[in-house]
Amino acid sequence: MKYEVIEEDGFKYIQAGEGETLVLLHGLMGELSNWEPAIDHFKKNYRVLVPILPIYDLPILTLGVKSLSKYVHRFLKFKKLSQVVLIGNSLGGHVGLVFTAAHQEFVKALVLTGSSGLYENAFGGSFPRRESYDYIKEKVEFTFYDPATATKELVDEVFKSVNDRSRVIRILALAKSAIRHNMSKELSRITIPVSLIWGKQDKITPPEVAIEFHELLPNSELNWVDKCGHAPMMERPTEFNEYLDTFLNRILLK
Question: Crossing angle of helices 152-162/165-180, nearest 10°?
Answer without folding.
Answer: 90
